[in-house]
Specification:
With 249 residues, this protein is an alpha+beta fold. It has two domains: 3-119, no CATH class; 130-241, Beta Barrel (Thrombin, subunit H), CATH 2.40.10. 47% of the residues lie in helices and 19% in strands. It has helices at 8-18, 20-31, 36-43, 46-63, 67-90, 97-119, 221-241, and strands at 3-4, 142-146, 154-162, 166-170, 180-187, 190-202, 211-216. It has a six-stranded antiparallel barrel with strand order 2-3-4-7-6-5. The radius of gyration is 23 Å and the shape is elongated. The two termini are 42 Å apart.
Length: 249
């Protein structure tokens, strides 16, 4: 079974999702300048409670990084856009309705960026599961993982899935929650020494091996270029091994 945890910042943001009914009521009253009739009309609107349900369910799912939470989150975003339009057209007393609506879109877009940054990346929540993506054949890339809990300072492991955002490391060793580590990679003439944080654990099952999902910390552009070079080289060799025609561009 996987033990998944979202980042601390996203965890704090989910409090706003779980408390959406209260926060939105206060926010909408202020920015849309509702009177008592407008507040009551919004509270009686099925769309308001549908949006609230979506945000609460999405917040709970995102905390556990459930796959379905992303789709619930997108649905809640769309319902909220429609809810804001309805409130502005029918209940708002604001003299700057256009500005108020744009403000809501900016806030929603910011929330979208924060959530998508944690959920839709290869090391954590890909569109295609990493063990089905073909990159799982990267098991031929050995790495060294340096971390404080290792008796000798470093442990041998294998790299599965790699991106400039993070990677999956196949290892039988037990790592701490959010433990800071360093990974030394030497592949295809590229040498990398990158720092990361353990963001989730996977136990050995039929579908995927025991290991850790690693979120890379800040890295410079040369390291990003080297990672991209390793991935391109691996994909090229994989396609050649599968008999695909490689066309240079």
């Amino acid at each position: 079974m996987q033990t998944l945890r979202c980042s601390r910042y996203l965890w704090l943001l989910t409090y706003g999702m779980l408390g959406f009914p209260v926060f939105y009521l206060i926010f909408a009253t202020l920015i849309f300048e509702f009177d008592a009739k407008g507040i009551l009309a919004m509270l009686l609107s099925p769309l308001f409670w549908l949006s609230c349900s979506g945000w609460v369910v999405a917040g709970a799912g995102i905390r556990l990084l459930r796959h379905w939470s992303w789709y619930v989150f997108i649905g809640a975003q769309l319902f909220t856009v429609y809810l804001n339009l309805q409130n502005l057209l029918h209940y708002s007393e604001s003299s700057t309705k256009g500005l108020a609506f744009v403000s809501t879109l900016i806030i929603q877009f910011y929330v979208y960026l924060v959530v998508s940054r944690d959920l839709r990346v290869p090391y954590l929540f890909p569109r295609i599961k990493w063990w089905e993506s073909g990159l799982a054949a990267m098991h031929n890339l050995p790495v060294e993982v340096y971390h404080a809990s290792a008796p000798e300072g470093a442990t041998k492991a294998h790299l599965l899935d790699l991106n400039i955002k993070g990677c999956f490391v196949k290892s039988p060793f037990e790592y701490g929650e959010f433990e800071k580590i360093k990974i030394k990679i030497e592949a295809y003439g590229q040498a990398l020494d990158v720092a990361g944080e353990v963001v989730w654990h996977a136990d050995s099952t039929v579908t995927h091996p025991k290991g850790i999902g690693v979120k890379f910390l800040e890295m410079d552009r040369p390291h990003k270029r080297r990672i991209r070079a390793v991935v391109r080289r691996f994909i090229k060799e994989r396609d050649q091994a599968n008999g695909r025609i490689i066309v240079s561009t």
